[in-house]
User: What shape does this take?
Amino acid sequence: MTHPIDKRGILDDDIFTYRTTKDRKVFISWYGKQVITLSGAKADAFIANIANADGKDAQLIMAKATGNFKHGNEKLFKRRK
Assistant: This one.
């Protein structure tokens, strides 16, 4: 059964990754391409939210943090890789 938020099952693959720096900045990448940098309160909130998440939950947190990834045009960008 698919998750109601991810009806197409896109988040089943690990399409998002993130890394943090010593100064608590967070870099989130989509298919290996950096799409957003979080710092300050947003970075702290992201780190707290993702600390206990894994798999699809972590992917959903990263997708929400990037914003603008629920328009259905993600396939177009993937093809341009």
In short: Strands lie at 16-20, 26-30, 33-38. The longest helix spans residues 55-66. The longest strand covers residues 33-38. The chain has a mean pLDDT of 81.
